[in-house]
Write a structure and sequence with these properties.
Blueprint (H helix, E strand, L loop, with lengths): L1 E14 L2 E6 L2 E7 L6 H13 L16 H4 L2 E6 L6 E3 L2 E3 L6 H18 L5 E3 L7 E15 L5
Parallel strand pairs: 3-4, 4-7
Antiparallel strand pairs: 1-2, 1-3, 1-8, 5-6
Length: 152
């Protein structure tokens, strides 16, 4: 499972002219699910989303010391199969991505586990397998790329 975490002041996802998910201060998380991904990959990703220290303390004297829980921030999960690409010349190939039915099941399980582990009303999502427009105001900018298969 690959994720891209971006620290945001606010973010929202629109699909078919309808806002389907939005958060204030927190993180926007793009989620790519690979054919070989398991619940262990999902658990690793959840631990990282909730544990990664992206924010300073309140008086800004110590950087990179607080996680999304400590700032009571939001998490916007957005399914992004294109993270599983390999390049074939100049054309991306997505054959490593999990098939849509299984990926939807895993994405929903990820959302549900994250909501149960954190605070349900602070977790929002895009709309799986739909064309989406994402608006966000990045904070920093801060962007991290994590891969459950390569934990370095």
């Amino acid at each position: 499972m690959k994720i891209v975490i971006q620290r945001v002041l606010r973010a929202s996802v629109t699909s078919n002219s309808e806002v389907v998910g939005s958060i204030g201060k927190g993180m926007s998380v793009l989620v790519g699910i690979c054919q070989e991904d398991t619940r262990e990959d999902m658990d690793y990703v959840i631990r990282k989303i909730l544990g990664v220290r992206l924010w300073s303390n309140e008086d800004e004297t110590k950087r990179w010391c607080r996680n999304v829980r400590e700032i009571e921030g939001g998490v916007l999960l957005i399914s992004q199969f294109t993270l599983m690409h390999v390049m074939k010349g100049n054309k991306p190939d997505f054959h490593h991505a999990m098939n849509p039915d299984k990926a939807l099941e895993m994405f929903n399980e990820l959302r549900d586990k994250l909501s149960a582990t954190y605070v349900a009303d602070r977790v929002a999502t895009g709309k799986f397998q739909n064309y989406m427009n994402i608006e966000q105001v990045m904070d920093g900018p801060v962007t991290l790329v994590l891969d459950s298969k390569n934990k370095e």
